What we know:
The complex is a heterotrimer of chains A (148), B (47) and C (516). Chain A is an alpha+beta fold and 148 residues long. Chain A has helices at 9-23, 60-64, 68-77, 82-93; strands spanning 97-99, 104-108, 114-115, 119-128, 133-143. In chain A, 28% of the residues lie in helices and 21% in strands. In chain A, strands 1, 2, 3, 4 and 5 form a 5-stranded antiparallel beta sheet that branches. In chain A, α3 packs antiparallel against α4. Chain A starts with 8 loop residues before the first helix and ends in a 5-residue tail after the last strand. Helix content of chain B is 0%, strand content 0%. The N and C termini of chain B lie far apart (52 Å). By secondary structure, chain C is mostly helical. Chain C has helices spanning 7-23, 32-44, 51-75, 80-103, 111-136, 143-156, 161-165, 167-180, 190-197, 200-209, 216-235, 241-260, 262-267, 269-275, 281-288, 330-342, 347-356, 367-387, 401-412, 415-426, 434-449, 453-467, 475-486, 502-515. In chain C, α1 (7-23) crosses α4 (80-103), α4 (80-103) packs across α6 and α18 (367-387) packs across α20. Chains in contact: A-B, A-C, B-C. The interface between A and C is large, with 31 and 50 residues.
Amino acid sequence: PLGPVPLGKDNIFQLVMSDSGFVHLPHPSDSERLRHHLPRNPCPTPSYYPQTPPPHADSVEFFQRLSTETLFFIFYYMEGTKAQYLAAKALKKQSWRFHTKYMMWFQRHEEPKTINEDYEQGTYIYFDYEKWGQRKKEGFTFEYRYLE
Amino acid sequence: PGMDLTTLGLNLNSPENLYSTFQSPWVDLPCRPQDIDFHVPWEYMTN
Amino acid sequence: IEDPPGLHEKTEYLLREWVNMYHSPAAGRDSTKAFSAFVQQMHQQGILKTDDLITRFFRLCTEMCVDLCYRALSEQTHNSGLVRAKCFHTLDAFVRLITLLVKHSGDTANSVTKINLLNKVLGIVAGVLLQDHEVRKTEFQQLPYHRIFIMLFIELNAPDIILENINFQVLTAFCNTFHVLRPTKAPGFCFAWLELISHRVFVGRMLALTPQQRAWGMYAQLLIDLFKFLHPFLRNAELTKPIHFLYKGTLRVLLVLLHDFPEFLCDYHYAFCDIISTNCIQMRNLILSAFPRNMRLPDPFTPNLKVDMLADIAHAPRIPTNFANMITPVSFKNDLDSYLKTRSPVTFLSDLRSSLQSNEPGSRYNISLMNALVLYVGTQAIQHIHTKSLTPSMSTIAHSSHMDIFQNLAVDLDTEGRYLFLTALANQLRYPNSHTHYFSCTLLYLFAEANTEAIQEQITRVLLERLIVNRPHPWGLLITFIELIKNPQFKFWTHEFVHCAPEIEKLFESVARSCI
């Protein structure tokens, strides 16, 4: 309603510079820590694939519905992210416990045969991240100083 | 008439805050949990 | 001034050492082990001996990091992920070094030394950026600077007792730096700049986590910087693709603020609307639509809504901007106060138009002065009415020195001036509060008392242009327009301009249908 105003020299320069800035736009990964295992890798998918995550995909309740193997994958391959944190929370709700020395998740297979102030001993299931599978360990001593 | 602001990729009816998952002014999707850097316990940094 | 001989080589050696140490598994938690060893090396090389050497060290490091990025960006153009990883390999290490030096500078409790060092480093990075921007011009790359600023901000906002104690000063330091690098000064950096100020960690700290809203003013200044940059381009309405992209990004950010921090938009609406181009109707509506989260707005379409009975209209909104001080020169302000008090001299009214004029290219009126005058006179009027134990209404706002000024402006200004005047009035139509109610009554009063149909048409046009854009629409705008078209006192539908063309008639009918 007030009509256009001819742009000054400064404004023309600003347009030229913003044009060149537009060619090298920031990428979302520029504001994230380096993702060593799963860097962003945009890949075109058919339009009938879901383009957005399901609703409430960032809640503990959603993570609790994922399989334990998925949770382990997220834990080990998305470290330092909210996803890892939620995966750990979901695992704990399913009675898994993190052993800080072996860096593995353990779950009691049965009631421990020995429990005292410093440790518990019995049969456990643990997830071996190197062999990528669950294993059973009998007579294992879980020292509480290594309990996360 | 301006833009339909509901098409900018923000859930304006969300009961939760939008800023905590705001990815970028140039992207019309919020952050996924794996996009958000988090202060996890040091023991979790297994790598 | 030349760097001392050998400093460049020493710095390059130290930077390379640190990058290796940072990435080594032996670096320890948060690189603390590596840092202890590295500081010894810095001492041995004499880097920490004087302030001048420290400054030169940081400048050289910054330049080396930036040069490395430019080389990487020019070498591999097909795999941006690899290029970024290469750049961040060094940049992230440099940022960690800065963080640790700031954190451990001086005694644990001594925040002054830490903040001084942070300000020094931020100033150096900003200086290198501006020089790079000046020299390389269209070849300038935002990436290295964007990465340094965002990772440094995130690291300095980690949960740590030492950093928590200096958090507000850290925020201040970053805001000052971002203001120095605002888009009008570094337009080649504008996209990274908006990404920085809208980052979730930055927004969270500035608007949510800092107690007592202490950082709100600083954040508002950054948004003002953004609006100032966009202003000349939005004013001309024909946007280049990059500017349109920036505008759309700005709208996204404003939507987040409207959703999460409406009280922030409420507080600073005056300052924002003062700088947003008058034709940016939707963006302005977005800001004016904000209302406090604890408020329940009555449906403006409620039949027989008694606005003057609402409890909220007794309360004035908070406006931190000192708009009274924006009425200049002081002599004009004194004359204004004198007229408001005594209704003299009468020449004040006839001189008012020339006081509002401007020689600035693009506008024959001083828009900031107009806005300040309107809000000041209106708030003085509300105060005056309250001292008489009355509330603003069509009858109580009339026959006062305040309304003299408003009526004089409506009649005496030309079309352009009157448009700016009416816009200033309409900018106060927001959520239920005393300003919304007073200015709503004022617009309706001016309509009713107008001595020419041209004034009534222009009032209608100012309201209508805000209604026909896409949502959101401020509550006060809706109730004012509904009152105008519903209340037989205003004889709205009898005016010729309502029927001046079939399209216009259809438009009014359509708006009326959606309102009624």
